[in-house]
Amino acid sequence: MDLRPGEVVADLGAGSGYFTFRISPKVGETGRVLAVEIQEAMLNTLRAHAATMKAKNVEVVQGSEIDPHLPVNGVDLVLVVDVYHELAYPFEVMTKIREALKPGGRVVFVEYRKEDPAVRIKEVHKMSVKQLEREMSAVGLVRVRMVETLPLQHYRYFRKAQLGSQSPLARSLARVSEIMRRKRSSRACRISVSSSLICGDRL
């Protein structure tokens, strides 16, 4: 992931901290790792591990289904490993993540390949490159790098797209944000490439 000392890295859906505590020494004492979880049991586990390992640069963050509670313009990299497909409100979460990225910040996704029938897990736990790139485009993120060294998963880097205030994408994002604020649904909602809402079963 090209981690550098002093960087701020967010581990979205950190679980028990498998990646969190491997990233911690990479960013060093001058960096921070924001371990984001919404489950109280996992939050407590992360805090306990951080104390045991004396990982002073690890900060446990309680997110929500719609907001990871990251600092605006405060994160160099967001790591999302086998988590994105589980999000109930991906548009809201990814919009907040985009806002959290520093200039030049990046988001790294690792997801099981939907295109590969040899990946023998349930389809609901897979995601295609086409779907991921379409959905990131809808929140103003563009792919900048692909890595295909993992046997079962896609590995994709994204950065902020450059948006002028009057660009079509900026206007679409503003319009969809307003729709989402007005119309909450109990079902998962996604954004099509035309910025229309798609609710219900995942694409």
Walkthrough of the structure:
By secondary structure, the protein is of the alpha/beta class. It has a single domain, classed as Rossmann fold (3-Layer(aba) Sandwich), CATH 3.40.50.150. The protein is 28% helix and 29% strand. The protein is built from five helices and ten strands; from the N terminus they run E-H-E-H-E-E-H-E-E-H-E-E-H-E-E. It has helices at 20-27, 40-52, 90-100, 129-138, 168-182; strands at residues 8-12, 32-37, 58-62, 75-81, 101-113, 126-127, 141-147, 153-160, 189-191, 197-199. Strands 1, 2, 3, 4, 5, 6, 7 and 8 form an eight-stranded mixed β-sheet that branches. A hairpin with a 5-residue loop joins strand 9 and strand 10 (197-199). The protein is globular and about 40 Å long.
List the helices and strands and how they pair.
Layout: E1 8-12, H1 20-27, E2 32-37, H2 40-52, E3 58-62, E4 75-81, H3 90-100, E5 101-113, E6 126-127, H4 129-138, E7 141-147, E8 153-160, H5 168-182, E9 189-191, E10 197-199
Parallel strand pairs: 1-2, 1-4, 2-3, 4-5, 5-6
Antiparallel strand pairs: 5-8, 7-8, 9-10
